[in-house]
Design brief:
The complex is a heterotrimer of chains A (287), B (498) and C (448). Chain A contains 14 helices and no strands. By secondary structure, chain A is mostly helical. Chain A has two domains: 58 residues; 212 residues, MetI-like fold. Chain B has three domains: 40 residues; 177 residues, no CATH class; 249 residues, MetI-like (MetI-like fold, Orthogonal Bundle), CATH 1.10.3720.10. Helices cover 72% and strands 2% of the residues of chain B. In chain B, strands 1-2 form a two-stranded antiparallel ribbon. Chain B is globular and about 90 Å long. The chains are: A mainly alpha (287), B mainly alpha (498), C alpha/beta (448). Chains in contact: A-B, A-C, B-C. Chains A and C meet through α5 and α13 of A and α1, α3 and α10 of C.
Amino acid sequence: MIKSYKFRRHLANGLIYLFLTVMGIIWISPFVYLVMHSFRGEGLIAVPYLIPKEWTLQNYIDLFTGAGGNAALSFPRWFMNTFIVACFSCIISTVSVLMVSYAFSRLRFKARKKFMNIGMILGMFPGFMTMIAIYYLLKAMGLTQTLVALVICYSCGAGLGFQISKGFFDTIPRALDEAATIDGATKNQIFWKIILPMSKPIVVYTVLTSFIGPWTDFILAKIIMGDKRENYTVAIGLQLMTTNDFMNRYYKQFLAGSVVVAVPITVLFLLMQRYYVEGVTAGGVKG
Amino acid sequence: MTYVEYKMLNPFQKFAYKLKKFILAIPHALATFFKAIGRFFAKLFLGIGRGFKNYGVTFVKGDWATKLSYIIFGVGDFSKGKYYKGIIYLLVEVFYILYMIFFGWTYLSKFGTLGTVETHREYVGIIPKTVYGDNSMLILLYSVLSIVITVIVFAIYIYNIKDAYKHQQMKAEGKKPTSFIADVKDFLDGKYHITLLSLPTLLIGIFNILPLIFMILIAFTNYDKSHLPPGTLFTWIGLDNFSDLLNVVDGARKATTFMELTKWTLLWAVVATFSNYILGMIFALMINKKGIKFKAFWRTLFVITIAVPQFVSLLLMNQMLQQNGAINVLLGMFLGENPNIQFLNSTTLMARMTVIIVNCWVGIPYTILSMSGILMNIPEDLYESARIDGAGPVKTFTKITLPYMIFVTTPQLITQFVGNINNFNVIYLLTGGGPKTEEFYQAGRTDILVTWLFNLTMNQQDYGLAAAIGILVFIVCATISLIVYNNSKSMKDEEAFS
Amino acid sequence: MKKILAILLAGVMTATAFAGCTGGSGEESSNNSSNGSSNSGSGASATQADVATGKVDESLFGDEGADGSTITLKVWAPDATVNLAKEQIEAFKKLYPDKKFDISVVAQGEGDAATALMNDATTAADVFSFPSDQLNLLVDAGVISPCAFADVVSSANQEETVTAGTINDELYAYPETNDNGYYLVYDKSVVSDEQAGKLEDILAACKEAGKQFVMDCGDGFYSCTFAFTAGVQVDGLEEDGITQKFVDYDEDAAVKTLQAFGKLIKKYKGTFVSLNVKNVASGFASDTCGAGIDGSWDTSVNEEALGDNFGAAKLPTINVDGEDKQLISMFGYKYLGVNGSSKFPASAQILAFYLGSQVCQQQRAEELGWGPSNLEVQKDKVVTDSVVLQAIAEQASNSCAQVNIAKTFWDPMANLGNQLIADEFNPDDTDAIKQLLKATIENIRDEG
């Protein structure tokens, strides 16, 4: 009896391992394909086989030196642009998300519920609706085609994404605040000295998501940058490489560029994965 | 159904029961929604009435400084020794008047017509030169700006009067106004919420709310390709854009497109949400099953999809799904010859299925991630007591794990549903809306409302129509969220885990 | 705190608002100096503007760049031509040594030029390159300035390019090329020059060699070939200016042609494949493609991929009931336009005139292999010796001009193409095909 139970469990686990392996291969294979073909030497876009015949670093070299085509595409420059924008918008967004969620979670004031509802409602309008208006506002400020405009766009609305971190703050016992208040601490001190040190997962989560944002947006950035290629971010640049005018000559460089963008983000993400999970779960459950 | 009967159902029946209840609750929820709006307006008008009364009463009771504050901001504060506040109030007034004289009014005065002076061409010798008239777009944008500023300044004005009166009363009681330092300290403690929220609110106001008001107004204009500032003017057309979209009776193409795309958007959102949810849950359960080793490895394997930017993975997928792409090549290796399947641009069904399957590939890792966290959080004593009661693995699963997960993830489900209605990337990057069809107005078979909206804005310059679609999408999303939000409370009460 | 911020807000808003304002009002006042003597459509005499060298009388600059002030202009050119355009602009500056120029060349794909211009004309280029089908939109939106040297330009360029650039009796743009169309590209080691004349032979040759024949049937620009060949050809717009007009056609004959296409595609499934045009060159490079339908914009990359085996010809014929019918294509031209909101309208016109002149067209033909619209350059050896340009010219006489095409034209045509290549398509079902054709035409003509 016991033996058959054990056997059944082993069988079940074996099947699960098999299933997970097959699915894992399905999930990971596009990226393996991406990496392999970024080293491909022959062909232009598609090849009628899966494994490249000629392996080379040329695509990466071309990508960084701007050789093998028009010099107007400057990947290193785009990479730097994106990095700068990501750093600044990450700092601003993180600070504003944490400020807003702390206020909503810990402070009690008259219009609190109203503010939260407005925040929720604003999030339900399709983002593309306002792009044109944002463009002309930035233009009135003389900021179009600049990196500052991108930082503004990526970080200004960040305060609206307070739900998850508010959910996280809600899980920190209020008794801590009360004890601190009795000791004479102000709300400001409580925020910096008590709540923030306890919120590592959610801080990491917020930093991570807002840092990744600029690397992936290719719509708003394109509208703001227009024809100013030297101020493009990697996302617009790589997307440009897949448009009709470029695809034949640049597809392999696109693959290489994608690897260059994806690898650091993936490494970063995997290193921070634990915090990300903690942040999502704690914030998501309560939020 | 009584409570006891309900408790005896299996989880799937429970779910079906809840779904039924949910659908039945829609009319009621809608009614509540409109009642709430009604109450809001009633409250608003009462508030305005009270405001007017206070406004008059304060004037009668006020001393000279308070009375003067009705015309010149900050006099009340200034006369009672609260200098910094008085100066700030005064500066607001000066700035506002200057703003209106030199800038705001020129635009605001044309708000009703959105401009009448047409741009035309003149010749200097043989060289054509464009002589610009009014720019409807800027008139509308800066009018909205001026209106928003006016509202804010009005609020400051009222606040200034209240402040003046407050200080007058304080003086009568023999109290001194608080010092600047004390005020600053208060902003770090008692009024800390103002310190924290004002900057984010300001930014959100400028870059979210202001553009939003502008675009909502655009929905009532004929801003499109042939009414395109600065070359041509556009003007108010009332509800025409909406009736174009909703006029199903005549079978006009815009209306047909809207109806068909709405159906597909909702279908897409439902299927995409639930396929991700259910499959993701199965994956998470397998990975987190007792006795399965290398949990972190399995999770990482799937989670890489999240880390790689979506535009990279989806553009790659698009290439792989082409007739000469990697997937056909792979199938060719098994079948002997390339099957030349056209995943993305042949039939509606094929394209839609491909999109949904690829969306699973994109979305399931997110579910795995959050579900794993939740599974680890299930209180161990729940299992403990179940085991003592003699429950087997199947029973523990259906009685504890599953209900707990459904209970905990309901809010996420709603967010995901709304997220899928607005899921731009997958559709845009994968199919670009295709396969193309002759039946739709500037849209393809897999286009959802937001991708249509995007196409109308960026490629067709149909701004008015696009804004109207945006508003309708918002109404759909808001209604669904509201109903579910109202309903989920009762769901929680019913099955609270204790 | 709230108040401080409110004031700051007001301050910031005012400042930015003023900044936004000055631009607009400045333009208005500077433009009011025009004398209003309307002589639209006339243009300069040959003594004032020489189309061979692209030089015009300096007085035409008016007060622009007077007293040594700088004339700032931006030019949009497609990536392939940026370097050449820069050289040409250096030459342009030398023509007018007394003026101070600051001219930048910015890369911008021609296909997106009109959209980019319409999204925000004031930051767009002063002079830009665009294909003929976008002219209607640009004129409608009032963002393009008419051609100032209409008479000189009209007489120097091919008549078709001038007609296609004219709306309401006014020439709106400077013709740049006459080659914006597609033709047959083939690998000579797979398809012989003789076989290239007939679609059946091409497909048979490709199948034998195990290669593909690539045509983008999911894009209305290419798939309208099916309809055009079937006799369903466009004929400008109705009087309302938005509804597409078609020539009278014989429905039964049209259906027969579509059936012939359907049968061929079915017979050569796996050989005849519908892919984005980019896959023609890519297919040549990886030895999977034997022939394809591709345009002038990909000529260089196709030549590179095929080397000596590069073959170009007009589109082939298709056998319908024993009769060989020539494939009819969509064919367009490219123009140089002047942005209506240019701050230096005269200089922009003069620059566009130069870039569209004989010298520049000659350079483009020599260095880029672009087909000129200038009548003199067309006689040049560079053009008459080019296989590609001859193929394009030959195809041009079997084509519908890509002008006055309704915006509702493309999707139904793309759908027609998709239907023809679908696995479910039954070439023997005459009624269904008739229905499909009817629906296509109806929906093109329906403005929604």
